UniProtKB/TrEMBL annotation:
All copies of domain G-protein coupled receptors family 1 profile, residue ranges: 28-283
Naturally occurring in which organism (per UniProt): Maylandia zebra
Family assignment from sequence similarity: Belongs to the G-protein coupled receptor 1 family.
UniProtKB keywords: G-protein coupled receptor, Membrane, Receptor, Transducer, Transmembrane, Transmembrane helix
Full protein name: Si:dkey-78k11.9
Location of the protein in the cell: Membrane
Record keyword Glycosyltransferase present: no
Transmembrane segments: 12-37, 49-73, 93-111, 123-144, 177-198, 219-237
A single MF term (Gene Ontology): neuropeptide receptor activity
Domain of life where this protein originates: Eukaryota
Signal sequence, renumbered to the chain: none
GO cellular component, one term: membrane
Matches recorded under InterPro entries: GPCR_Rhodpsn, GPCR_Rhodpsn_7TM, NPS_rcpt
Lineage: Eukaryota, Metazoa, Chordata, Craniata, Vertebrata
Length: 326
């Protein structure tokens, strides 16, 4: 459907969100990866998953200015069909690569807390690299069929659909449901299982350090936020929107709930890109950046006290001594 509300969501809201994500996400990911490389040796094998999470973010960010231009120009794609497919492919690699590596980080934290001895023996840097390669291969295999679907209508070649044209929407819905189950639902259940068990262990065991408990619960909160805000709405409304289009292709009429789902889907497309802004919170948390900032602030206070407060105190004393002499 195309009305004033849908135009607002697609041509104003999406470009605004993409611009925000590009600016903030670029800065946050550069800072995060710089800190990661500085502390590479001290982190252990989890740094491999964190690095790949950063790479997934950088696959999306360079494409956002082109998508912003597309929606800002009222859905007119001027960069060619090949680049349209590359842009959409990078979007999907970012989305499902992020989900994959966040799941790997969740399993890693689960093993470190629940089975620490097994984790030390079995999980090495080489194992982490092998798992990362498998994740990229699986994500690429899941995303590749999307490239094979047409991204524009035969009579409207300037379009760059994020799904496909109406002629192929029924087949695309079947593919999308399977993609959702393997690329999102399965990792999400693994995530829930890991952190459900971790929460039970943290609550029952008094031997676990309080700081470790707090850091684990904070990481769980960040990951729940990511899944709740970025991933769950996108997959629900994407498939509902596709189903609505399938109903239209058979009945020549959109269902009554289509307009609400369409608007929600446009918003969820913006929210899913926020994963590139929220993902750095994961590796900044693991790197313990807040603690580093706290140390820097403490040093600044000490320096400020030595330089200014001590000088301010010493000046009246010196003046009083001079008056006594005179």
């Amino acid at each position: 459907p195309s009305d004033n509300n849908s135009d607002v969501y697609e041509q104003i809201t999406l470009p605004a969100i993409y611009t925000f994500v590009f600016i903030i996400g670029l800065g946050a990911n550069v800072c995060g990866l710089k800190s990661l490389l500085q502390k590479w040796k001290s982190l252990g094998h989890i740094n491999v998953f964190l690095l790949n999470l950063g790479i997934a973010n950088f696959l999306l960010l360079p494409t956002l200015p082109f998508l912003t231009a597309y929606y800002f120009m009222k859905n007119k794609w001027i960069f060619g069909d090949a680049f349209c497919k590359i842009t959409r492919f990078c979007f999907n690699l970012n989305l499902y690569g992020s989900i994959g590596f966040l799941t790997c980080i969740s399993v890693n934290r689960y093993l470190a807390i629940v089975h620490p001895l097994k984790a030390k023996r079995r999980i090495t840097v080489r194992t982490s690299v092998a798992i990362s390669v498998m994740v990229w291969l699986l994500v690429s295999a899941q995303s590749l069929p999307d490239v094979l679907f047409p991204k524009n209508s035969p009579n409207r070649t300037e379009k760059c659909y994020h799904t496909t044209s109406n002629e192929y929407v029924e087949d695309y819905l079947k593919y999308s449901v399977g993609w959702t189950l393997t690329g999102f639902v399965m990792p999400f259940f693994i995530f829930l299982g890991c952190y459900g068990h971790v929460t039970l262990v943290l609550c029952r065991k008094n031997t676990i350090n309080k700081v470790v408990k707090q850091r684990s619960l904070k990481l769980m909160f960040i990951l729940i936020l990511l899944f709740s805000v970025c991933y769950i709405p996108y997959h629900i409304f994407k498939n509902l929107s596709l189903y609505s289009r399938v109903l239209f292709s058979t009945n020549k009429k959109y269902p009554s709930w289509d307009k609400g789902v369409f608007c929600a889907h446009q918003i969820s497309r913006g929210l899913v890109c926020l994963n590139s802004v929220l993902n750095p919170l994961v590796y900044l948390h693991v790197l313990d950046i807040p603690a580093q900032l706290q140390q820097l602030l403490q040093r600044f206070r000490q320096t400020f006290t030595r330089l200014f407060v001590s000088n301010y105190v010493s000046v009246p004393v010196a003046q009083t001594a001079n008056r006594a002499i005179s």
